[in-house]
Amino acid sequence: MHFVINGNPLELEFDPRTSLLDLLREQRHLFGAKKGCNQGACGACTVLVNGTRINSCLALAMQYSDCEITTIEGLGAPGELHPLQAAFVEHDGFQCGYCTPGQICSAVGMIHELKCGVPSHVSEDVAAEAFELTDTELRERMSGNLCRCGAYNGIVDAIQDTFGEEQTEPSTREAA
Fold first, then answer.
1. Residues of the chain with pLDDT > 70: what percent?
2. Residue 31 CB neighbour total at 10 angstroms
3. What is the DSSP string of 6-61?
4. In what order do the strands lie in the sheet with 8-11?
5. Which of 19, 26, 74, 124 is the most exposed place for a label (fewest CB within 10 A)?
6. What pLDDT does 131 receive?
7. Which tens digit of pLDDT belongs to each residue from 49-66?
8. Under a CB-based contact definition with an 8 Å cutoff, are residues 102 and 34 in contact?
9. What is the CATH number of domain 2-75?
């Protein structure tokens, strides 16, 4: 099957029962996405597929053939961190770091959803033309990513510092 993982086109063979998380970790040796709960409840395995965040532990790899998959390793590199990665360091958005790759990938995907006009459970007007990234919106949109260390304030500060001015206007919405 054909994949594009972190910008690299690949032809891979694997058991059709293989999860995307296991494919990334065991075959591609990309260990950023973590196997936390293996039930889709913690978000440690979050990666981006065509810009949309997913729990890779719940996804069969074969479902994502011909898709562009981005892991934390594909967002930045040593010396060239993604702005959100740098903000996590600056704002102490991590303690043990286990959840950090999933948190960062989820936040990048969350901004994509915001730009596409996807409302959250706390959006006051779900038919609004634009959504502002308030602390309440941010916390709700990131609620699927858990941090056992409780670094949530640093995580929120890092995301707000990086994307706080983000909001969508009808003319700039992208297709989901």
1. 93
2. 14
3. TTEEEE----TT-BHHHIIIIIS---SS--SSSSSSS-TTEEEETTEEEETTSSBG
4. 8-11, 2-5, 68-70, 46-49, 52-55
5. 124
6. 83
7. 999 999 999 999 999 999
8. yes
9. 3.10.20.30
Length of the chain: 176
Residue extent(s) of CATH 1.10.150.120 domains in the chain? 83-172
Q: Are 58 and 40 in contact (CB under 8 A)?
A: yes
Confidence label for 130 from pLDDT (cuts 50, 70 and 90): confident
Q: Where are the CATH 3.10.20.30 domain residues in the chain?
A: 2-75
Radius of gyration of the chain, Cα coordinates, nearest whole angstrom: 16
CA distances from 141 to 27, 36, 54, 57 (A): 31, 20, 13, 20
Structure tokens at 147: 């941090």
